[in-house]
Every structure is written in structure tokens, then in C-alpha cells.
Amino acid sequence: MLKKEYKKFIIESLYFILVSLIFTSIDLNNYSGQCIYKLKKPKKTQALFLITAHHILGTIANFGWLATSKIFLSIFIIINISIIIHWITNKNRCKTTQKLNKICGFPEDKWFPDFFYIIGLKKYNFWNKWASYLFYSFTMLYAIYKLFYG
User: Fold this and answer.
1) What is the mean pLDDT of each run of 10 residues along the chain (150 residues)?
2) Domain that residue 14 falls in
3) Which of 2, 4, 34, 65 has the greatest number of C-beta atoms within 10 Å?
């Protein structure tokens, strides 16, 4: 029988995957779907993989701090630190978004339609310049607190 922590991790992982698939569905229906239909099979598969994987990582990065599993909280912290370092070293852009934009023929400056894009925050310069970093830093600190004291 699995330990309680592993069970919690598996259940939370399934919840996050479900939410990610909902965001993937919203993306395909409203944003990236126009690209998928016109691509040929190998590029279509690559684009679908990038979109789905990006939404899974994005959902964890945006909402992982809500988890209670110490394993999931640890993964959340590692993912967010990696994302912030990546953004800083890539001029505030995501390589996956850039790759998908190139495959789909989207403009180079098109944002990835994650939760914050869908609710409209990414259209504001304050979000893209510093508020997103503040959000991810605060949620990481909260996750660290939960990891050690929660």
C-alpha cells in the first residue's frame, strides 16, 4: 500500500493534469486551434505536445502552491525557480512559446494563452514587467512555508 504522502501526490497530480487539459481545451478552441488545423502530421503532433506540456507546466507554476503534498510542493518550487531563471536569461520570453509561435506562424511577440492570458492580465504591461515575478516569488515563499511548517 502506498504511503499517505504518495497517495496525496498522485491525487493532486491527477487534479492538476485535469485542470491542465481544461486549459489546453480552452487554448485549442480559442487561440492555438487555428494553427493545429493547418499543420501537417509531424508538425501537428509536435505543436499538440508543446501546447499540452506547456499547459501542464503552466498550471503547476500558477497553482502548485495550492497543493498539500510535500512532493508536489517541492516540484512546484523547482519548476518556478527554473521558469524565473529561464525568463531572466531569455529576455522575459519562454522558449516553448517562441518555438510554438514559429511552428504556427504566429507573431514572435504572441503570449502563451495560460490562465493569466485567458483572464486578461497579460495585456497589461505591469503584469509582464514585474507583477508576474512578484506573484511567482510570493507563491514560492508560501509553498516553502507550507513545505516546512504546513
Assistant:
1) 86 97 96 91 95 97 97 97 93 93 93 93 87 93 94
2) 4-149
3) 65
